[in-house]
Every structure is written in C-alpha cells, then in structure tokens.
C-alpha cells in the first residue's frame, strides 16, 4: 500500500469510531470513501446495527456487496453521520468535491447530515482552494449558456470526457470542470454558481463539514469547524 492509500485508510479507521449503534450513516463516493465503506462493513459484520445512505450507484453496489443495509435517499429526513472524501480542503474546512462526479448527491446527503466527516490524505490540504478544478453538474441542454456564465465569473470550463465522450453522471448530466484560479472567497463563488440556471450542483462545499480527519503517515490529524 502506497503512502497516499495508507493515509486514506488510517483516516477512515479513525472516522468510523464516531458511528454509534442504530445510526443512519451516509456513505461517500471515491477512492478515499472506499476505505470507509470497507471499515463500516467490518463493523457491521461484527454486530454494529446501522442503515446507510449511498451517494452514488457505485457506492450502493459496493455497500450491498459488503452486507450493509441501505436506505433510499428520498426516504430519509435526517442522517446522523456521513463519511466522505474531498479533492481539496482549506483551514476553514471548505471543500472542493466531485472528482468522481457524484457531488450532487453528496451535497444533498451532506445537507441532511448532523455530522459530516471528511477523510483525506495529506495531499488534499491546501492554503487556498482552486488548484483542483470545481466540478459542475450541468444539464446538457444548458451547456452553452453555462459556459457563457462561467466567463462572466472570470472562469472557464471544459466538459469532462471519459474514453473520448462526455462523462455522464448518475443523474444523466454532464460534468463541466470549472477553472477559477485560486479561490479567495469560496462562499461568494458558491453563491454565484448557485444562481446559474443549468448548473444542478457545483463542487464547492461551504459550511457543510463538521470534521476533517487527515491521514499523515501512519497517524491522523483532526480539524474541527467551530
């Protein structure tokens, strides 16, 4: 296991300690969340009683294969704890998420969650968000309009491709990776993107995270939002 995966795993093992019996647990998507899902499955195997809400079809398939009982997001009014990953986080625990293209469902689940825990390797910590592009889930018919609006926000976008064709989300939309340079005011950019018709969701997560647990070598560092 390389150092990055080791850091993800130790962060995941620390995060699952927050789960209590009978909790409803949000399960994230991506390479980091994979370690958390494995750790949750091990706890369930050893007798922990929980039900989980997946943030993507991929996560649902993985969780089911590991024996985790799932709930449909539309049937859930509140989630006790969610464990997910991030592509970047800053000192205010603002995030960029959506490298896996699941940030719409991830954001809905984060908004329903009492305690959102982000796990990350040490390479995800930044002084200022923006080196990682901001994923935007865009309704296909609105693509040209959205691209024009991004330019008004001093940004530019590129449709994410997979095997030479547009990547399609679980919701049937495109992902546009938006480049705004380094982001000095994440909350302001978040609000501006919220106003653009055709963007179903963007990958800036502001004031949604309670705790970030970062792996650093074989240890973890925990950051708490006050």
Helix content, binned percent? 25-40%
- Number of DSSP strand runs: 15
Share of β-strand residues:
25-35%
The description of the largest β-sheet is: 6 strands, mixed
Number of helices: 6
Whole-number radius of gyration?
A: 17 Å
Terminal CA distance reads 34 Å
Average pLDDT, all residues: 97
- The computed structural class is alpha/beta
Order of helices and strands: HEHEHEEEHEEHEEEEHEEEE
Strand order of the largest sheet: 2-1-3-6-14-15
Itemize the secondary structure elements and their pairings:
Layout lengths: L2 H13 L8 E4 L3 H15 L5 E4 L2 H9 L13 E6 L3 E2 L5 E2 L6 H10 E9 L12 E5 L4 H10 L3 E4 L1 E2 L2 E2 L7 E6 L6 H9 L4 E4 L1 E2 L5 E6 L2 E6 L2
Parallel strand pairs: 1-2, 1-3, 3-6, 6-14
Antiparallel strand pairs: 4-5, 5-13, 7-11, 7-12, 8-11, 9-10, 14-15
Helix pairs in contact: 1-2
What would your notes on this structure say?
This protein is an alpha/beta fold and 226 residues long. Helices cover 29% and strands 28% of the residues. Strands 2-1-3-6-14-15 form a six-stranded mixed β-sheet. A four-stranded antiparallel β-sheet has the order 8-11-7-12. Strands 4-5-13 form a three-stranded antiparallel β-sheet, with helices on one face. Helix 1 crosses helix 2 (31-45). The model has no long low-confidence stretch (mean pLDDT 97).
